[in-house]
Amino acid sequence: MKIDTKIGSKVKSFTRDYSIVLALIVLMIAITMADSRFLRVSNLMNILLQTSTVAIVALGQALLLITGQLDLSLGQNVCLSGFISAYFMEMLELGPWLSLVIGILVAMLVGLINGLLTTIIGIPPFITTLGMQLVCQGCAKLITSTKTIAPLDKSIKVIGRGFVFDTIPVSVVLMIVLYALMAFMMKRTRMGRYYYEIGGNPEAAYFAGINVKLYRILAFVIAGFFAGVSACVLISRLDSANIANGTGYEFEAMIGAVLGGVSQSGGKGKIFAAMFGVMFSVALFNGMTLLNVNPFVQDVFKGGILLFAMGVDAIRTKQAV
Amino acid sequence: MNDIAIQLEHITKTFPGVKALDDVSIQIQRGTVHALVGENGAGKSTLIKILSGIYQPDAGDIYINGKKKKFKVPVEAQRAGISVVHQEFKLSETLTVTENIFLGNLIYTKAKLVNWKEMRKRAEKMISDLQVELDPDTIVQTLSVAKKQIVEICKSISREASIIIMDEPSATLTERELEVLFGIVRTLRDSGYTIIYISHRMDEIFGLADNISVLRDGCHVATMPVAEVTRDKLITLMVGRELENEFIKHNCSISDEVILEAKKVSRAGVLQDIDLQLRKGEVLGIAGLVGAGRTELARALLGIDKIDSGEVLYKGQPVKWNFRTAIKNGLGLVPEDRKRFGLSLQSTVKNNITLTAIDKVLEWGLLNLRKEYKYAEWYVEKLRVVTPSVETKVMNLSGGNQQKVVIAKWLMADSEIMILDEPTRGVDVGAKRELYGIIKDLIEQGKTVIVISSEMPELLSICDRIVVMSRGRLVGEFAHGEGTQEKILSLCV
Ligand SMILES: Nc1ncnc2c1ncn2[C@@H]1O[C@H](COP(=O)(O)OP(=O)(O)OP(=O)(O)O)[C@@H](O)[C@H]1O
Ligand SMILES: [Mg+2]
Question: How far apart are CA A108 and CA A77, in angstroms?
Answer without folding.
Answer: 9
